[in-house]
Amino acid sequence: MALLDKLMNLVGELVLARNRVLQFTRADSDPAFVTTSQRLNLITSELQEGVMKTRMQPVGTVWSKFPRVVRDLSLQLGKKVRIEMEGEDTELDKTIIEAIKDPLTHIVRNSVDHGIESPEQRLAAGKPAEGRLLLRAFHEGGQVNIEVSDDGAGIDLERVRARAVERQLLTHDQAARMGEREVANLIFMPGFSTAEKVTNISGRGVGMDVVKTSIEKIGGTVDLQPRQGKGTTLRIRIPLTLAIIPALIVVSDGERYAIPQVNLLELVRLEGEQVRTGVERIHDTKVYRLRGNLLPLVDLRTELGLGEPADEVDVLNIVVLQAEDRQFGLVVEGVTDTEEIVVKPLGRQLKGIPTFAGATIMGDGRLALILDVLGLAQRAKVVTESRERSSHSSLSTTGAEQDSTQTLVVLRVGADTRVALPLTRVARLEEFPRDLVERGSGQDVVQYRGEIMPLVDVARALGVPRGDEPDDLMQVVVHTSGGRSVGLVVEDILDIVEEHVTVAAVATRKGLLGSAVVQGRVTDLLDIEAVIQSQGIGLALAAAAAKGA
Amino acid sequence: MADEQQLCTFYAGGLYFGLDVREVQEVLQYQDMVRVPLASEVVRGLINLRGQIVTAIDLRRRLDLPERDADVDPMNVVVRSDDGAVSLLVDEIGDVLEVDERSFERAPETLRGRMRDLVEGVYKLDGRLLLVLDAQKAIDLPLPRREDE
Fold it and tell me: Average pLDDT over chain B, rounded to whole?
C-alpha cells in the first residue's frame, strides 16, 4: 500500500508538470511541440485514471459487516430488521472508504436503534412487523451518493424542535420558522440527542454531530430527509477521490484561488449597466436575483481580509456556490480556468484557518490556496442563517415548456442549427480528441472518468445537414441520469445565456421540444431523452445498469 | 569530538542566531511566496519547494523584532519537522560553525518576551554572542487569531 501511495504522489507531480507544459503550448505554437504535449496530456490523464483505479475499492467492503451488525442489534433490541443493499460495487478511493467506515456504522446502528420500531408498534401502525433498512450507493455528477433509508417511525419533528429550544440551540421563533428538512438536520448539531432513554447501542458518546464532522472532513455532505411516520433517508454525498480534483481557478486581489468543482453550481457575469441594476442591497448585505431567488453575495476580497470591495466596477463575476443546502454568490475579480489540481495539505501553522482546504501548485509553478467553501460560507455567516429555501435548481429541471427565466446552453449542431438545453441537464462540458473515440457494443464510446460513456451525434439524431470537416477536438455535452453519463456530440458550444424562454413553436421534428427565441435568434430546444433514445442508448443504458447491479 | 557541535548560523534584526545543522534541511535564496490571508502575521506565505508546500515564518516577526526594510528580500532557513519542512525567513545566512560546548550558557533569566521562550542558550564567541534557537518552538505557532471572536 505504501508503494501505491508513492505512485499516487508521483502521478500527482506528473499532473502538475503536465499542466505546466500545457501552459507553454499556449505561448509556443511549434506544431511538433504542441502535438507532443497533447500526447503527454493524454498519457498523463490515462495514467492518472489507471492509478486512481488501483486505489478504488467497492463500498461493499464496508457494507459487508452490516448484516451482522444489524442482526445482532435487532436481536438485542427485540426488533425484526431486514437489510437490503443496492450498488455494493460502487467504487471509492480507499482513503475515503476508510474515512466513512465509522460514520456509516454509526448511522446504521442509529437507524436500527432509533429509526425502526418494535414489531408491536409496527403492526399497530399498519406496517409489516419486519422493518427494512436499505443501503444504496450510486455515482452522480462526479460524486458518490450513499443513502441509508429505513421505514421506521421517522423523526418526530416537534420533539426535535422542542429539544433544540430546550437546549438553547434555537429560540422559539427560529424553531417555528424552520422547515421540516431543516428541523430534521438539527440532529447534527453538537450535543443533540432526542432518545428518551440512552441506550448502549448508538448512544455511545458518538453523536450525529461527529458523523457529520467526519463526513465533512473528507469534503462530503450529510442530509437527512424525514418522511414523518414513514421513515428517514440519510444521504451522504462524497467525492470520488481526494487526491486530484477538478477546480475552478479564480483571482482575487492579484492572487489565484482554487474552488473545488463539487461546490460549484454556475458562473454569472454581469457587465456594465447590469452591475448597477443587478445587485441590490438589503441593509448591508448585497444580493443578486438569480432566477427569482435572492442569492446573498459574498466578496472574496473582503472575506479574506484584503480590503473592501470596489464600488464602481464594470464587470462583476459571481461564482455561485453550494454550501450544505445553501447557495451563495462569491464575488471574485476574475475567473480564469478549470484545472485538475493536486490537493496538498497545509502545515500545522495554518490548520486553524477553516477558509482553506489546502494548497496546490499551478501550471506556472506558483502556488494557489484551495478555498474550503463550507468554511468560507460559515465565515461569511451564509450557512448559519435558518431560512427555508427550497433548492430551486430542482424546480428548473422540469423542461423547456416552462415559461420562466432559465439558464440555457446554446449549441451549434451540424452546419448551422442552433439548439439549446437547460444548464441543469448538463453535467459537464468536455472536449475530447477525436482519436479517443472507440467502438463498444455497436456504439461510439469514450472512456470518461473511469466509465465507458456512449456518444450521441446530435446532428445525426436530429437529421440536420452536416457542416464542414470536423476538427480534431470534439465538443461534448455530458448529460448524467441515473448515475450514467451520455455524451452529446455537437459542433460547437456557443454560449450560456439566461433567458426568459417562451416556446414559440411546437416541435415538428423528433428530438426537439419546440423552438424559442434565444438571444434574438430562433433556437430549437433539445429533447434530451428523445435524442438519447433515438440512438438506442436508452436501452443500452438500462441494460448496462441492470448488469452493473 | 562529543563536545563539538555544528551550527548553521544566520542573522535577523542585527542578532546572530544558530541552529543545530541536523535540524536544518537546507538554506535557500529568496523564494517567491504566496501570501495566506487570515493567517497569523508571522506567516509570510507559502513556498513551492520542489513540489512540497512549505510555510514561511518571518523570524523577525516571530521574535517581535523590528520589521525588515521592504526592499530587502529575506532568505530561507528550511527546518525539518514531524509535519514536513518549514522555512524561517532571515536577513542573511552565515557560515556553518563548529562550536565548543564549553562556551555554552543558558539564556539569562532577564531575557524577556518571545526571546525568552525561543532562545535555548548562548555561545560566547570571540567578540560576539551566538543565540541558539529552539527551532521546533519557533515554528510552532499559537492558533491563528480569529477576528470574529
Answer: 86
Interface pTM, i.e. ipTM? 0.86
Could you tell me if B122 lies within 8 Å of chain A, comparing CB atoms? no
Beta strand extents in A215-333 (DSSP E only) = 221-227, 231-239, 244-252, 255-260, 264-271, 279-282, 285-290, 293-299, 315-323, 326-332
Three-class HEC string of B29-86: CCCCCECCCCCCCCEEEEEEECCEEEEEEEHHHHCCCCCCCCCCCCEEEEECCCCCCE
pLDDT beyond 70 at A508: no
- Residues A199 and A219: beta-carbon distance below 8 Å: no
Is A349 close to B141, i.e. CB distance below 8 A? yes
Note the pLDDT tens digit of each residue in A116-168: 888 998 999 888 989 999 999 987 656 788 999 998 887 777 877 887 788 77
SS3 category, A400 = coil
Q: Which residues of A touch B39 (CB under 8 A)?
A: 349-350, 353
Return mean pLDDT, chain A: 79
DSSP per position, A127-150: S-SSEEEEEEEEEETTEEEEEEEE
Cell numbers standing for residue A335? 475567473
Global pTM reads 0.55
Count A/B contacts: CB-CB distance under 8 Å.
Answer: 69
CA distance B137 to chain A (A): 12
For residue A367, give how far its alpha carbon lies from the nearest alpha carbon of chain B (Å). Answer: 6
Q: What is the pLDDT of residues A482-500, one digit of tens each?
A: 677 888 888 888 877 777 7
Least confident of A262-266, A449-453, A502-506, B109-113: A502-506
Count of Cβ atoms closer than 10 Å to residue B50 Cβ: 6
- At B77, the amino acid letter reads V
Query: What's the mean pLDDT in A200-223?
Result: 70
Residue B138 has which C-alpha cell? 519557533
Q: Which domains does chain A have, with CATH numbers?
A: 2-56 (1.10.287), 59-239 (3.30.565.10), 244-379 (2.40.50.180), 403-548 (2.40.50.180)
**For residue B131, what pLDDT is reported?**
93
> Which among B34, B54, B141 has the least Cβ separation from residue A366?
B34
Q: Do B38 and A361 touch (CB under 8 A)?
A: no
